[in-house]
């Protein structure tokens, strides 16, 4: 904690930028060879990424994981982060609960889309309760899972709207799971080709929406903002290529 706190303090002294961290549980995407434990997930559906079958989470597991999210959020606050983002995308645990592909439960956490949202919303509420109102809270969701039989932009927008009511301050929209075969980041994808995902979310919420993927051209990013499809732009690889890009 202390080295991280010192690092963040130094950044705060030298820049006005806000600094965030992401919280996630990988669920069935966890490799047991790395953890020494059987992965856990909503249902024992084999992972095409790890080729392992997870153990179905018990009610005790669910409570333990929610508490772990709260503890992680508390550490983030103590370290001095300005923003905490809960990952509910890319096929990780919360999106596994959201998806009918990986959630076959018959209890309160499975079945209808409202019940499949329950775990993610409870995590959000638990984190918000832990960090209070003074720290910004967001979620990162898949605007479309791009998985056959999975969630589309419609279900994602429903979850985003409920997440806003649960206390999040921003929605960060990406697309797809790690298993999907639909490319989203490679250069053959048209610039701004997935902007419709953030637009579909923004139409259903009143809080800021981030757009992601293939927006590295500043002119494309500017048009995305001016079009009203999003309020902020996510840059990853463009910043690795040129850290001065925002200043330019």
Low-confidence stretches: none
What structural class is derived from the secondary structure elements? alpha/beta
Question: How much of the polypeptide forms β-strand, as a percent range?
Answer: 5-15%
Separation of the first and last Cα atoms = 34 Å
Overall number of strands: 8
> Helix-strand pattern, N to C?
HEHEEHEHHHEHEHEHEH
How are the secondary structure elements laid out?
Layout (H helix, E strand, L loop, with lengths): L1 H13 L5 E4 L8 H4 L4 E2 L13 E2 L2 H21 L3 E6 L4 H6 L14 H4 L1 H14 L4 E7 L10 H14 L3 E5 L20 H8 L6 E3 L6 H9 L5 E2 L3 H5 L7
Parallel strand pairs: 1-4, 2-3, 4-5, 5-6, 6-7, 7-8
Helix pairs in contact: 3-6, 6-7, 7-8
Explain how this protein is built.
The chain is of the alpha/beta class. It contains 10 helices and 8 strands. The protein has helices at 2-14, 32-35, 59-79, 93-98, 113-116, 118-131, 153-166, 195-202, 218-226, 237-241, and strands spanning 20-23, 40-41, 55-56, 83-88, 136-142, 170-174, 209-211, 232-233. The strands form 2 sheets. The protein has a 6-stranded parallel beta sheet with strand order 1-4-5-6-7-8. It has a two-stranded parallel sheet with strand order 2-3. Strand 5, helix 7 (153-166) and strand 6 (170-174) form a beta-alpha-beta unit. The longest helix is centred in the N-terminal third of the chain and has 21 residues, at 59-79. The protein is globular. The two termini are 34 Å apart. The model has no long low-confidence stretch (mean pLDDT 96).
